[in-house]
Write a structure and sequence with these properties.
Helix 11 links the parallel strand 8 and strand 9. The strands form two sheets. The protein has a seven-stranded parallel β-sheet, sandwiched between helices. A six-stranded parallel β-sheet has the order 10-9-8-11-12-13, with helices on both faces. The protein contains 20 helices and 13 strands. The protein folds into two domains: 178 residues, 3-Layer(aba) Sandwich (Rossmann fold); 192 residues, Rossmann fold, CATH 3.40.50.2000. It has 387 residues and is of the alpha/beta class.
Length: 387
């Protein structure tokens, strides 16, 4: 069978690579092309364009790259027409992948959507367009599946979240702390500004300034900064050099789960990392900042049927209430971040309560074997609609 898989950022590349591995188990002769990054390529896909190092967040930020993706859309549409894959798989990156799905549907090629747009947050507009071009939604969140089933005559399967199969530390927290020479009284604070350059530029300066202020008043804090493979080390070093008196230990992203399991607190960019941290029971402060134009558009597009306060982090969305603090846009200041960290450090009950609140998220996200279930859906649609 022939497959075209499209992902646009690091997390999508990660999940798509895992899916490719499962597809190849079920279909050893699979031919796989697509848009994605080095992980998809390593899994065996022929990558036609890699956008992962330049992915953005926010409406305005994405609009600046519209001409690049318009050209790629034209190229991919021509490829679909000439090569007739048996199925197209949309992995997140909804702004572009919805356009690609519309082209595939016009060519009568089935589309399976993994990580569909957050229509439950933005309202029905996005879901309306998805429903016209997607054959099958593989939903990773229970309330997401419920939303699409309620409003649309779509095939929707709740498969669970792929992270339930992936989030496993390799070292016990005690062993990790021993290897890093940590005293029992020292507190580990994890800084995770995201996997996009834009996120690092927006968030890491605030995180480092807050860390410097905290370190000036306490000697029992150790700061660790895992660096995603999509981030240039020179960018990180240039930001660290602005705080010469601050000791921050950088780590490769392969250490993320060991760090999360052993840390006392995480300061995280909103995104996949917040769910990984939740699965490992890490107390966290979630940060998020895009341009003022994108923030205004987000508030305008937010689903007016949803009367809840704005929440962006996955743990809060899954629980349906604010269990982890969020510092967003103008609310993300050095003073506010320092205050939040001090609350965790000075009130141990706050951390214990959050760990308790985070328990059970793994059960909500479904049983193991997620990508095996997605691969079965993808192959089923390809078999029912052979190219």
């Amino acid at each position: 069978m022939k497959y075209f898989i499209s992902a646009g950022e690091h997390s999508g590349d990660l999940h798509a690579a895992s899916l490719i591995q499962e597809i190849r188990k079920q279909d050893p002769k699979a031919q796989i092309w697509g848009m994605g990054g080095p992980l998809m390529a390593a899994a065996g896909a022929e990558i036609m364009f890699d956008p992962t190092a330049e992915s953005t967040i926010g409406f305005w930020e994405a609009a600046k790259k519209v001409w690049v993706f318009r050209r790629r859309l034209s190229e991919f549409t021509y490829f679909l027409r000439e090569n007739r894959p048996d199925v197209v798989v949309w992995v997140d990156f909804g702004g572009f992948n919805r356009l690609l799905a519309e082209q595939a549907a016009a060519l009568s090629i089935p589309v399976v959507c993994l990580f569909p747009p957050a229509a439950w947050a933005y309202g029905k507009g996005r879901a309306d367009r998805l429903a016209r071009c997607v054959t099958h939604v593989a939903s990773v969140l229970p309330f997401e599946a419920e939303y699409y089933r309620r409003y649309y005559n779509l095939k929707v399967t709740y498969v669970g979240h792929p992270l339930v199969d992936r989030v496993r530390p390799q070292l016990a927290p005690e062993e990790w702390r021993q290897r890093h020479g940590l005293a029992p009284t020292e507190k580990v604070i994890l800084l995770m500004p995201g996997s996009r350059k834009q996120e690092v530029r927006n968030l890491l300066p605030v995180m480092l300034a807050a860390a410097a202020e905290l370190a000036a008043s306490r000697e029992d804090l150790r700061f660790f900064l895992p660096v995603a493979p999509t981030i240039d080390q020179a960018l990180v070093q240039s930001l660290l050099e602005q705080h010469p008196g601050l000791a921050v230990e950088t780590e490769p992203s392969a250490e993320n789960y060991n760090l999360m399991a052993a840390a006392d607190l995480g300061i995280l960019a909103s995104g996949t990392a917040t769910l990984e941290a939740a699965l490992l029971g890490l107390p966290m402060i979630v940060t998020y900042r895009v341009s003022s134009v994108s923030a205004l558009l987000y508030r305008f597009l937010q689903n007016k049927e949803n009367n809840q306060p704005v929440m962006v982090s996955l743990p809060n969305l899954i629980k349906g209430r604010k269990i982890v603090p969020e510092l967003l846009q103008d609310g993300l200041t050095v003073d506010d971040l320092v205050m939040q960290v001090r609350l965790f450090l000075e009130l141990p009950e706050r951390s214990r309560q959050m760990r308790k609140e985070l328990q059970g998220i793994g059960e909500i996200l479904g049983p193991p074997g997620v990508m095996e279930r997605v691969a079965t859906i993808v192959r089923g649609e390809a078999t029912q609609h052979p190219g």
